[in-house]
């Protein structure tokens, strides 16, 4: 008879706790089902969508691929992904800050389409966006616009009118997105409808006042009246042309850009000696220029805002600044535990 093995000892000052397996993510109803029965649940959509959605993840852990699951259940890979992600978003809403009765709004088969659009928001933003979705009875397209505006809003700090809108208000974030969109219109007549859409969803009084002021100014401009510029517009940074690339453009680009650097103290002669043209051999990666030069800037180029340069007494620039915007990449749908705020 072998002697009994004593339990492992814990480090001094710590209590030993034996290993416990993680809780089963499957609802109790489905935990004891065999493989055939689980596939049948997915094939027949038996139960609520958020209850059988974890079955997809359990099958993936057992070696099933989206294609094999689709073959066995008729559920496409797109639907599988939507259900898994939506169920994760739904689970993240379960907290003291979100009433349980509101979760039932998403029990229908349209629920995954709505919750799926909130996947890129953090936990706090999801709660705010979900409440706004229910209050406004938004469809998936409207939820997508709302989620994008809430994610984009913090990045617009310092832009014109930003301070008047509240980042904690879903309506204000959406209103500001439409407010910004109205400023991209060339004709004043085209700005007014977008501003009116912004006014429809705005929630705070400061934001409402800012939108109403913009509508009033747009109407006057459309009528040919002279409108005095706001102080914020005078101090605003110079407009930067935006170049929007098409899908596939420069996606595999490997061309090196070298810029000649001239100090102000070098004088006009140094500027004249700087290379004007360059050509890159795409195969060999060699950059050829029309003149020899000793000082180059490669890699990262720091561009200062025009407002900062004006404060330093610099009123002229040697080049035009252009913002190049690539098409958005397909972001992963997996929701991680460490969510950004």
From TrEMBL:
Keywords on record: Coiled coil
| Residue ranges of every copy of the Rubisco accumulation factor 1 alpha-helical domain listed in the record | 110-214
Ranges annotated as biased composition (Pro residues): 1-11
Give the Pfam families listed for this entry.
Raf1_HTH (PF18579), Raf1_N (PF18578)
Where does the source fall among the domains of life?
Answer: Eukaryota
Stretches the record annotates as Disordered: 1-26
Q: Give residue ranges for domain Rubisco accumulation factor 1 helix turn helix.
A: 35-93
Q: Which InterPro entries match?
A: RAF1, Raf1_HTH, Raf1_N
- In the UniProt record, the signal sequence range is none
**In this entry, which stretches build a coiled coil?**
201-233
Q: Which GO terms describe its cellular component?
A: chloroplast
Q: What name does this protein carry?
A: Rubisco accumulation factor 1, chloroplastic
From the broadest rank down, the organism's phylogenetic lineage runs: Eukaryota, Viridiplantae, Streptophyta, Embryophyta, Tracheophyta
